[in-house]
Protein backbone atom coordinates (compact mmCIF):
# COMPACT_ATOMS: atom_id res chain seq x y z
CA UNK A 1 0.00 0.00 0.00
CA UNK A 2 1.38 3.41 -1.00
CA UNK A 3 0.75 6.17 1.56
CA UNK A 4 1.18 9.75 0.41
CA UNK A 5 0.74 11.50 3.76
CA UNK A 6 0.38 10.20 7.33
CA UNK A 7 -0.52 12.24 10.40
CA UNK A 8 0.07 11.21 14.00
CA UNK A 9 -1.88 12.90 16.79
CA UNK A 10 0.18 12.87 19.98
CA UNK A 11 3.88 13.17 20.62
CA UNK A 12 4.11 10.61 23.41
CA UNK A 13 6.13 7.38 23.13
CA UNK A 14 3.52 5.57 21.02
CA UNK A 15 3.00 8.41 18.57
CA UNK A 16 6.69 9.15 18.09
CA UNK A 17 7.58 5.49 17.68
CA UNK A 18 4.75 4.86 15.22
CA UNK A 19 5.84 7.88 13.20
CA UNK A 20 9.45 6.66 13.00
CA UNK A 21 8.47 3.14 12.01
CA UNK A 22 6.02 4.48 9.40
CA UNK A 23 8.69 6.67 7.84
CA UNK A 24 11.28 3.90 7.82
CA UNK A 25 8.79 1.57 6.13
CA UNK A 26 7.52 4.26 3.69
CA UNK A 27 10.40 6.65 2.91
CA UNK A 28 8.37 8.52 0.26
CA UNK A 29 5.48 9.16 2.65
CA UNK A 30 5.23 12.51 4.42
CA UNK A 31 4.86 11.71 8.14
CA UNK A 32 4.03 14.48 10.59
CA UNK A 33 3.46 14.33 14.36
CA UNK A 34 1.14 16.89 15.96
CA UNK A 35 1.70 17.43 19.70
CA UNK A 36 -0.27 20.09 21.57
CA UNK A 37 2.41 20.46 24.27
CA UNK A 38 5.84 21.99 23.99
CA UNK A 39 8.92 19.90 23.17
CA UNK A 40 10.71 18.78 26.31
CA UNK A 41 7.69 19.31 28.57
CA UNK A 42 6.19 16.16 30.00
CA UNK A 43 4.43 14.89 33.09
CA UNK A 44 5.66 11.83 34.87
CA UNK A 45 9.00 10.50 36.05
CA UNK A 46 10.48 7.15 35.01
CA UNK A 47 9.26 4.54 32.55
CA UNK A 48 9.95 0.82 32.92
CA UNK A 49 10.82 -1.35 29.93
CA UNK A 50 10.57 -5.09 30.64
CA UNK A 51 12.55 -7.81 28.88
CA UNK A 52 9.69 -8.87 26.60
CA UNK A 53 9.16 -5.32 25.33
CA UNK A 54 12.89 -4.92 24.76
CA UNK A 55 12.92 -8.05 22.59
CA UNK A 56 10.10 -6.68 20.43
CA UNK A 57 11.80 -3.29 20.08
CA UNK A 58 15.06 -5.03 19.19
CA UNK A 59 13.38 -6.82 16.30
CA UNK A 60 11.55 -3.73 15.04
CA UNK A 61 14.14 -1.00 15.53
CA UNK A 62 17.47 -1.99 17.14
CA UNK A 63 18.98 1.51 16.80
CA UNK A 64 16.31 3.11 19.00
CA UNK A 65 16.41 0.31 21.55
CA UNK A 66 20.19 0.51 21.79
CA UNK A 67 20.00 4.15 22.82
CA UNK A 68 17.13 3.55 25.24
CA UNK A 69 19.00 0.72 26.95
CA UNK A 70 22.11 2.91 27.14
CA UNK A 71 20.05 5.60 28.84
CA UNK A 72 18.34 3.16 31.20
CA UNK A 73 19.12 1.83 34.65
CA UNK A 74 18.79 -1.87 35.48
CA UNK A 75 17.54 -2.97 38.88
CA UNK A 76 16.25 -5.86 40.96
CA UNK A 77 12.99 -5.94 42.95
CA UNK A 78 12.37 -5.96 46.71
CA UNK A 79 9.33 -6.25 48.96
CA UNK A 80 9.70 -4.55 52.33
CA UNK A 81 7.28 -4.93 55.24
CA UNK A 82 8.60 -3.19 58.32
CA UNK A 83 12.15 -4.43 58.80
CA UNK A 84 11.57 -7.60 56.76
CA UNK A 85 12.91 -7.44 53.22
CA UNK A 86 12.93 -10.01 50.44
CA UNK A 87 14.74 -9.50 47.12
CA UNK A 88 14.11 -11.02 43.69
CA UNK A 89 16.71 -10.78 40.95
CA UNK A 90 15.23 -9.13 37.84
CA UNK A 91 17.89 -6.98 36.20
CA UNK A 92 16.37 -7.38 32.75
CA UNK A 93 14.00 -4.55 33.71
CA UNK A 94 15.31 -1.05 33.01
CA UNK A 95 14.05 2.32 34.18
CA UNK A 96 14.38 5.29 31.82
CA UNK A 97 13.54 8.91 32.58
CA UNK A 98 10.40 9.82 30.66
CA UNK A 99 12.08 13.02 29.48
CA UNK A 100 15.02 11.02 28.13
CA UNK A 101 12.72 8.42 26.54
CA UNK A 102 10.88 11.15 24.67
CA UNK A 103 14.12 12.89 23.69
CA UNK A 104 15.49 9.64 22.22
CA UNK A 105 12.26 8.97 20.32
CA UNK A 106 12.11 12.56 19.04
CA UNK A 107 15.70 12.38 17.77
CA UNK A 108 15.14 9.06 16.04
CA UNK A 109 11.87 10.21 14.51
CA UNK A 110 13.52 13.32 13.08
CA UNK A 111 16.52 11.27 11.94
CA UNK A 112 14.12 9.10 9.94
CA UNK A 113 12.60 12.19 8.32
CA UNK A 114 9.48 12.69 10.46
CA UNK A 115 8.26 16.27 10.83
CA UNK A 116 7.30 17.32 14.39
CA UNK A 117 4.84 20.13 15.09
CA UNK A 118 4.34 21.33 18.67
CA UNK A 119 2.05 23.74 20.45
CA UNK A 120 -1.13 23.33 18.40
CA UNK A 121 -4.23 21.25 19.10
CA UNK A 122 -5.36 19.33 16.02
CA UNK A 123 -8.34 17.06 15.39
CA UNK A 124 -8.37 13.94 13.23
CA UNK A 125 -11.21 15.18 11.03
CA UNK A 126 -9.31 18.32 10.05
CA UNK A 127 -6.11 16.67 8.86
CA UNK A 128 -5.22 16.24 5.20
CA UNK A 129 -3.75 12.75 5.33
CA UNK A 130 -4.26 9.29 3.90
CA UNK A 131 -3.72 7.83 7.36
CA UNK A 132 -4.37 9.34 10.79
CA UNK A 133 -2.88 7.59 13.83
CA UNK A 134 -4.64 8.81 16.98
CA UNK A 135 -2.12 8.38 19.80
CA UNK A 136 -3.68 11.20 21.81
CA UNK A 137 -3.72 9.50 25.18
CA UNK A 138 -6.16 8.38 27.81
CA UNK A 139 -8.28 11.51 27.37
CA UNK A 140 -8.34 11.02 23.60
CA UNK A 141 -10.54 13.56 21.86
CA UNK A 142 -10.50 11.27 18.82
CA UNK A 143 -11.95 8.36 20.75
CA UNK A 144 -14.47 10.41 22.70
CA UNK A 145 -15.85 12.09 19.58
CA UNK A 146 -15.66 9.15 17.19
CA UNK A 147 -17.57 5.92 16.50
CA UNK A 148 -15.17 3.69 18.44
CA UNK A 149 -17.50 2.49 21.19
CA UNK A 150 -15.14 3.73 23.88
CA UNK A 151 -15.92 3.20 27.56
CA UNK A 152 -14.02 3.79 30.78
CA UNK A 153 -14.15 1.89 34.09
CA UNK A 154 -12.90 3.71 37.17
CA UNK A 155 -11.09 1.88 39.99
CA UNK A 156 -11.88 2.12 43.69
CA UNK A 157 -8.44 2.94 45.03
CA UNK A 158 -6.55 6.23 44.99
CA UNK A 159 -3.01 6.75 43.73
CA UNK A 160 -0.56 9.49 42.84
CA UNK A 161 2.72 9.67 40.94
CA UNK A 162 5.69 11.50 42.41
CA UNK A 163 9.45 11.12 42.45
CA UNK A 164 12.60 11.71 44.45
CA UNK A 165 16.06 13.01 43.66
CA UNK A 166 18.12 9.90 44.34
CA UNK A 167 18.25 6.43 42.74
CA UNK A 168 16.94 3.57 44.84
CA UNK A 169 19.08 0.42 44.78
CA UNK A 170 16.12 -1.69 43.61
CA UNK A 171 12.47 -1.43 42.73
CA UNK A 172 10.67 -1.35 46.09
CA UNK A 173 7.17 -2.38 47.10
CA UNK A 174 6.57 -1.21 50.66
CA UNK A 175 3.49 -0.58 52.80
CA UNK A 176 3.57 1.87 55.70
CA UNK A 177 1.02 2.22 58.47
CA UNK A 178 -0.16 5.66 59.54
CA UNK A 179 -2.77 6.96 61.96
CA UNK A 180 -5.19 7.06 59.02
CA UNK A 181 -4.49 3.66 57.46
CA UNK A 182 -2.02 1.99 55.11
CA UNK A 183 -0.26 3.58 52.15
CA UNK A 184 1.81 1.50 49.71
CA UNK A 185 4.60 2.62 47.43
CA UNK A 186 5.69 1.09 44.15
CA UNK A 187 9.04 2.82 43.63
CA UNK A 188 11.90 2.21 41.23
CA UNK A 189 15.11 3.93 40.11
CA UNK A 190 15.59 5.37 36.67
CA UNK A 191 18.30 7.13 34.71
CA UNK A 192 19.40 10.59 35.77
CA UNK A 193 19.87 9.75 39.44
CA UNK A 194 16.19 9.77 40.37
CA UNK A 195 13.40 7.38 41.32
CA UNK A 196 9.70 7.13 40.61
CA UNK A 197 7.48 6.92 43.69
CA UNK A 198 3.94 5.76 42.99
CA UNK A 199 1.84 5.72 46.16
CA UNK A 200 -1.64 4.29 46.58
CA UNK A 201 -4.24 3.79 49.27
CA UNK A 202 -7.89 2.94 49.73
CA UNK A 203 -10.73 5.45 49.62
CA UNK A 204 -11.41 5.35 53.38
CA UNK A 205 -7.78 6.01 54.33
CA UNK A 206 -7.59 8.77 51.73
CA UNK A 207 -10.62 10.51 53.24
CA UNK A 208 -9.51 10.04 56.87
CA UNK A 209 -6.23 11.74 55.97
CA UNK A 210 -8.16 14.72 54.56
CA UNK A 211 -6.89 14.19 51.05
CA UNK A 212 -10.38 14.56 49.61
CA UNK A 213 -10.06 18.21 50.65
CA UNK A 214 -6.52 18.68 49.31
CA UNK A 215 -7.49 16.99 46.04
CA UNK A 216 -10.40 19.38 45.58
CA UNK A 217 -8.07 22.31 46.32
CA UNK A 218 -5.48 21.11 43.78
CA UNK A 219 -8.19 20.85 41.12
CA UNK A 220 -9.95 24.13 41.92
CA UNK A 221 -10.49 26.69 39.11
CA UNK A 222 -7.52 28.98 38.78
CA UNK A 223 -5.02 26.43 40.09
CA UNK A 224 -1.95 26.29 37.82
CA UNK A 225 -2.12 23.34 35.43
CA UNK A 226 1.18 21.86 36.65
CA UNK A 227 0.48 22.37 40.38
CA UNK A 228 0.83 19.41 42.75
CA UNK A 229 -0.97 18.45 45.95
CA UNK A 230 1.84 19.66 48.22
CA UNK A 231 -0.01 18.81 51.45
CA UNK A 232 -0.20 15.14 50.43
CA UNK A 233 3.43 15.13 49.31
CA UNK A 234 4.70 16.48 52.64
CA UNK A 235 2.64 13.95 54.61
CA UNK A 236 3.80 11.04 52.45
CA UNK A 237 7.37 12.25 52.67
CA UNK A 238 7.24 11.67 56.43
CA UNK A 239 5.34 8.38 56.11
CA UNK A 240 7.96 6.94 53.73
CA UNK A 241 10.98 8.48 55.45
CA UNK A 242 12.56 5.03 55.78
CA UNK A 243 12.53 4.46 52.05
CA UNK A 244 13.41 8.08 51.20
CA UNK A 245 16.47 8.25 53.50
CA UNK A 246 16.05 11.93 54.20
CA UNK A 247 15.22 12.92 50.62
CA UNK A 248 12.11 14.81 49.55
CA UNK A 249 9.26 13.79 47.30
CA UNK A 250 9.04 15.73 44.05
CA UNK A 251 5.74 16.58 42.41
CA UNK A 252 4.98 17.08 38.74
CA UNK A 253 1.27 17.76 38.48
CA UNK A 254 1.01 15.21 41.28
CA UNK A 255 -2.59 14.72 42.37
CA UNK A 256 -4.64 11.82 43.70
CA UNK A 257 -6.44 9.90 40.96
CA UNK A 258 -8.47 6.76 40.37
CA UNK A 259 -7.20 4.45 37.67
CA UNK A 260 -9.21 4.53 34.45
CA UNK A 261 -9.37 1.38 32.32
CA UNK A 262 -10.22 2.26 28.72
CA UNK A 263 -11.74 -0.23 26.28
CA UNK A 264 -13.11 0.25 22.78
CA UNK A 265 -15.42 -1.85 20.61
CA UNK A 266 -13.36 -0.94 17.57
CA UNK A 267 -9.97 0.69 17.07
CA UNK A 268 -10.46 2.24 13.64
CA UNK A 269 -12.91 4.23 11.57
CA UNK A 270 -12.39 5.46 8.03
CA UNK A 271 -8.73 6.45 7.71
CA UNK A 272 -8.24 6.88 11.47
CA UNK A 273 -6.83 4.27 13.84
CA UNK A 274 -6.38 4.40 17.62
CA UNK A 275 -3.09 3.50 19.26
CA UNK A 276 -1.95 3.14 22.87
CA UNK A 277 -3.92 4.75 25.71
CA UNK A 278 -6.45 6.18 23.29
CA UNK A 279 -7.58 2.62 22.53
CA UNK A 280 -6.88 0.80 25.80
CA UNK A 281 -5.24 1.06 29.21
CA UNK A 282 -4.10 -1.53 31.76
CA UNK A 283 -3.46 -0.95 35.46
CA UNK A 284 0.06 0.28 36.19
CA UNK A 285 0.80 -2.59 38.61
CA UNK A 286 1.13 -5.01 35.72
CA UNK A 287 0.63 -3.03 32.53
CA UNK A 288 2.60 -0.17 31.02
CA UNK A 289 1.05 2.38 28.71
CA UNK A 290 4.42 2.91 27.07
CA UNK A 291 4.89 -0.82 26.45
CA UNK A 292 1.42 -1.25 24.99
CA UNK A 293 1.66 1.82 22.78
CA UNK A 294 5.08 0.96 21.34
CA UNK A 295 4.02 -2.64 20.69
CA UNK A 296 0.86 -1.30 19.03
CA UNK A 297 3.04 0.82 16.77
CA UNK A 298 5.08 -2.20 15.69
CA UNK A 299 1.96 -4.24 14.85
CA UNK A 300 0.25 -1.34 13.04
CA UNK A 301 3.19 -0.61 10.77
CA UNK A 302 3.66 -4.31 10.01
CA UNK A 303 -0.03 -4.58 9.06
CA UNK A 304 0.18 -1.50 6.84
CA UNK A 305 3.12 -3.08 5.04
CA UNK A 306 1.38 -6.40 4.46
CA UNK A 307 -2.23 -5.41 3.66
CA UNK A 308 -3.52 -4.05 0.39
CA UNK A 309 -5.64 -1.22 1.79
CA UNK A 310 -6.31 0.64 5.04
CA UNK A 311 -9.37 -1.40 5.97
CA UNK A 312 -7.51 -4.68 5.68
CA UNK A 313 -4.49 -3.24 7.52
CA UNK A 314 -6.61 -1.98 10.41
CA UNK A 315 -8.39 -5.34 10.65
CA UNK A 316 -5.05 -7.18 10.75
CA UNK A 317 -3.65 -4.76 13.34
CA UNK A 318 -6.62 -5.26 15.61
CA UNK A 319 -6.67 -9.01 15.06
CA UNK A 320 -3.04 -9.22 16.16
CA UNK A 321 -3.09 -6.74 19.02
CA UNK A 322 -6.53 -7.07 20.60
CA UNK A 323 -6.00 -10.58 22.07
CA UNK A 324 -2.68 -9.55 23.62
CA UNK A 325 -4.14 -6.32 24.98
CA UNK A 326 -7.26 -7.99 26.38
CA UNK A 327 -5.16 -10.69 28.01
CA UNK A 328 -3.02 -8.04 29.68
CA UNK A 329 -6.10 -6.07 30.71
CA UNK A 330 -7.48 -9.21 32.35
CA UNK A 331 -4.24 -9.77 34.26
CA UNK A 332 -4.07 -6.10 35.17
CA UNK A 333 -7.61 -6.11 36.51
CA UNK A 334 -6.78 -8.97 38.88
CA UNK A 335 -3.64 -7.16 39.93
CA UNK A 336 -5.58 -3.93 40.48
CA UNK A 337 -8.11 -5.67 42.73
CA UNK A 338 -5.26 -7.32 44.64
CA UNK A 339 -3.51 -4.02 45.29
CA UNK A 340 -6.74 -2.27 46.23
CA UNK A 341 -7.14 -4.87 49.01
CA UNK A 342 -3.42 -5.24 49.77
CA UNK A 343 -3.33 -4.18 53.48
CA UNK A 344 -5.46 -7.17 54.49
CA UNK A 345 -2.55 -9.51 53.60
CA UNK A 346 0.10 -7.97 55.82
CA UNK A 347 -0.17 -10.84 58.31
CA UNK A 348 1.68 -13.12 55.90
CA UNK A 349 5.46 -13.58 56.29
CA UNK A 350 7.21 -11.44 53.71
CA UNK A 351 8.37 -14.44 51.63
CA UNK A 352 4.84 -15.82 51.34
CA UNK A 353 3.62 -12.30 50.58
CA UNK A 354 6.12 -12.15 47.71
CA UNK A 355 4.72 -15.42 46.36
CA UNK A 356 1.21 -13.98 46.69
CA UNK A 357 2.34 -10.85 44.86
CA UNK A 358 3.95 -12.78 42.00
CA UNK A 359 0.94 -15.10 41.56
CA UNK A 360 -1.76 -12.44 42.13
CA UNK A 361 -2.84 -12.25 38.49
CA UNK A 362 -2.34 -15.89 37.56
CA UNK A 363 0.51 -15.37 35.10
CA UNK A 364 3.57 -16.28 37.23
CA UNK A 365 2.95 -19.74 38.71
CA UNK A 366 4.92 -21.02 41.66
CA UNK A 367 6.67 -23.73 39.63
CA UNK A 368 8.05 -20.99 37.35
CA UNK A 369 8.86 -18.46 40.06
CA UNK A 370 10.95 -21.05 41.90
CA UNK A 371 13.50 -20.91 39.07
CA UNK A 372 13.74 -17.11 39.37
CA UNK A 373 13.93 -16.92 43.16
CA UNK A 374 14.62 -20.38 44.62
CA UNK A 375 15.62 -19.09 48.06
CA UNK A 376 12.48 -16.98 48.39
CA UNK A 377 10.18 -19.80 47.30
CA UNK A 378 11.87 -22.41 49.49
CA UNK A 379 11.49 -20.17 52.55
CA UNK A 380 7.86 -19.44 51.69
CA UNK A 381 7.13 -23.16 51.29
CA UNK A 382 8.75 -23.97 54.62
CA UNK A 383 6.64 -21.25 56.27
CA UNK A 384 3.57 -22.77 54.65
CA UNK A 385 4.27 -26.45 55.19
CA UNK A 386 6.38 -26.47 58.36
CA UNK A 387 9.28 -28.35 56.72
CA UNK A 388 11.52 -28.04 53.65
CA UNK A 389 9.76 -28.96 50.40
CA UNK A 390 10.58 -32.21 48.65
CA UNK A 391 9.46 -34.07 45.55
CA UNK A 392 7.03 -32.70 42.98
CA UNK A 393 6.18 -29.14 44.05
CA UNK A 394 2.41 -29.03 43.52
CA UNK A 395 1.90 -32.47 45.02
CA UNK A 396 3.94 -31.48 48.08
CA UNK A 397 1.84 -28.31 48.59
CA UNK A 398 -1.45 -30.20 48.28
CA UNK A 399 -0.21 -32.88 50.67
CA UNK A 400 0.64 -30.60 53.63
CA UNK A 401 -1.46 -31.08 56.77
CA UNK A 402 -3.57 -28.25 58.21
CA UNK A 403 -4.68 -27.38 61.72
CA UNK A 404 -7.63 -24.98 61.80
CA UNK A 405 -9.85 -24.13 64.74
CA UNK A 406 -8.80 -27.20 66.69
CA UNK A 407 -9.40 -29.52 63.73
CA UNK A 408 -6.57 -31.33 62.00
CA UNK A 409 -6.64 -32.25 58.32
CA UNK A 410 -4.08 -34.74 56.94
CA UNK A 411 -3.70 -32.80 53.68
CA UNK A 412 -5.20 -29.85 51.81
CA UNK A 413 -7.61 -31.97 49.78
CA UNK A 414 -9.38 -33.67 52.70
CA UNK A 415 -12.44 -31.44 52.90
CA UNK A 416 -15.25 -32.00 55.43
CA UNK A 417 -18.92 -31.22 54.81
CA UNK A 418 -19.12 -27.43 54.51
CA UNK A 419 -21.71 -24.80 53.64
CA UNK A 420 -21.70 -24.43 49.85
CA UNK A 421 -21.39 -21.03 48.21
CA UNK A 422 -21.71 -20.49 44.46
CA UNK A 423 -19.55 -17.67 43.15
CA UNK A 424 -20.08 -16.16 39.71
CA UNK A 425 -18.72 -12.72 40.58
CA UNK A 426 -16.40 -10.52 38.58
CA UNK A 427 -15.26 -8.59 41.66
CA UNK A 428 -15.03 -10.36 45.04
CA UNK A 429 -14.90 -6.95 46.75
CA UNK A 430 -18.22 -5.82 45.23
CA UNK A 431 -21.58 -5.50 47.03
CA UNK A 432 -22.38 -9.05 45.88
CA UNK A 433 -19.11 -10.16 47.44
CA UNK A 434 -20.13 -8.43 50.68
CA UNK A 435 -23.28 -10.57 50.71
CA UNK A 436 -21.31 -13.81 50.36
CA UNK A 437 -18.88 -12.76 53.09
CA UNK A 438 -21.79 -11.99 55.42
CA UNK A 439 -23.27 -15.41 54.69
CA UNK A 440 -19.94 -17.10 55.37
CA UNK A 441 -19.78 -15.46 58.80
CA UNK A 442 -22.78 -17.51 59.90
CA UNK A 443 -21.08 -20.84 59.12
CA UNK A 444 -18.24 -23.00 60.42
CA UNK A 445 -16.74 -23.13 56.96
CA UNK A 446 -17.57 -22.75 53.26
CA UNK A 447 -16.91 -24.67 50.05
CA UNK A 448 -16.92 -22.22 47.14
CA UNK A 449 -17.85 -23.50 43.69
CA UNK A 450 -18.69 -21.78 40.43
CA UNK A 451 -18.13 -21.84 36.67
CA UNK A 452 -15.35 -24.20 35.53
CA UNK A 453 -13.19 -21.79 33.50
CA UNK A 454 -9.85 -20.70 34.91
CA UNK A 455 -10.79 -17.05 35.25
CA UNK A 456 -13.80 -17.94 37.39
CA UNK A 457 -11.62 -20.21 39.56
CA UNK A 458 -9.09 -17.42 40.17
CA UNK A 459 -11.93 -15.11 41.15
CA UNK A 460 -13.39 -17.51 43.68
CA UNK A 461 -9.93 -18.04 45.14
CA UNK A 462 -9.87 -14.27 45.70
CA UNK A 463 -13.29 -14.48 47.34
CA UNK A 464 -12.06 -17.33 49.54
CA UNK A 465 -9.12 -15.19 50.61
CA UNK A 466 -11.41 -12.32 51.50
CA UNK A 467 -13.62 -14.66 53.56
CA UNK A 468 -10.59 -16.18 55.32
CA UNK A 469 -9.17 -12.82 56.26
CA UNK A 470 -12.42 -11.13 57.27
CA UNK A 471 -14.21 -13.98 59.04
CA UNK A 472 -11.59 -16.55 60.00
CA UNK A 473 -13.85 -19.43 58.94
CA UNK A 474 -12.47 -22.47 57.14
CA UNK A 475 -12.49 -22.02 53.35
CA UNK A 476 -12.27 -24.54 50.55
CA UNK A 477 -12.42 -23.91 46.81
CA UNK A 478 -13.55 -26.28 44.10
CA UNK A 479 -11.78 -26.39 40.74
CA UNK A 480 -10.97 -28.71 37.87
CA UNK A 481 -8.11 -31.14 38.48
CA UNK A 482 -6.06 -29.63 35.65
CA UNK A 483 -5.90 -26.36 37.62
CA UNK A 484 -3.99 -28.01 40.46
CA UNK A 485 -1.03 -25.64 39.98
CA UNK A 486 -3.32 -22.63 40.50
CA UNK A 487 -4.71 -24.28 43.62
CA UNK A 488 -1.20 -24.85 44.96
CA UNK A 489 -0.27 -21.22 44.31
CA UNK A 490 -3.39 -20.13 46.19
CA UNK A 491 -2.63 -22.34 49.20
CA UNK A 492 0.90 -21.01 49.61
CA UNK A 493 -0.38 -17.45 49.09
CA UNK A 494 -3.00 -17.83 51.82
CA UNK A 495 -5.99 -17.48 49.52
CA UNK A 496 -7.69 -20.66 50.73
CA UNK A 497 -7.28 -23.33 53.40
CA UNK A 498 -8.37 -26.42 51.45
CA UNK A 499 -9.13 -27.35 47.86
CA UNK A 500 -11.44 -29.78 46.09
CA UNK A 501 -10.64 -30.94 42.60
CA UNK A 502 -13.82 -31.58 40.63
CA UNK A 503 -13.00 -35.21 39.96
CA UNK A 504 -13.14 -35.62 43.75
CA UNK A 505 -16.27 -33.50 44.29
CA UNK A 506 -19.48 -35.14 45.41
Explain how this protein is built:
- With 506 residues, the protein is of the alpha/beta class.
- The chain has 3 domains: 5-42 and 51-71 and 97-150 and 262-337, FAD/NAD(P)-binding domain, CATH 3.50.50.60; 158-250, D-Amino Acid Oxidase, Chain A, domain 2 (2-Layer Sandwich), CATH 3.30.9.20; 348-504, no CATH class.
- Helix content is 40%, strand content 22%.
- The protein has 18 helices and 24 strands.
- Strands 6-5-12-13-14-11-15 form a 7-stranded mixed beta sheet. The chain has a 6-stranded mixed beta sheet with strand order 8-2-1-9-18-17, covered by helices on one side. A 4-stranded parallel beta sheet has the order 21-22-23-24, with helices on one face.
- Helix 1 packs parallel to helix 4.
- The radius of gyration is 24 Å and the shape is globular.
Write the SSE topology.
Layout: E1 5-9, H1 13-25, E2 30-35, E3 46-49, H2 51-60, H3 62-71, E4 73-74, E5 77-81, E6 84-88, E7 94-97, H4 98-112, E8 115-118, E9 131-134, H5 141-144, E10 151-154, E11 158-164, E12 171-177, E13 182-190, E14 194-201, H6 203-208, H7 211-218, H8 230-239, H9 241-244, E15 249-250, E16 260-263, E17 268-269, E18 272-274, H10 289-306, H11 310-340, H12 350-358, H13 366-372, H14 374-385, H15 393-398, E19 402-404, E20 407-409, E21 419-422, H16 431-441, E22 445-449, H17 454-471, E23 474-479, H18 484-492, E24 498-501
Parallel strand pairs: 1-2, 1-9, 2-8, 5-12, 9-18, 21-22, 22-23, 23-24
Antiparallel strand pairs: 3-7, 4-7, 5-6, 10-16, 11-14, 11-15, 12-13, 13-14, 17-18, 19-20
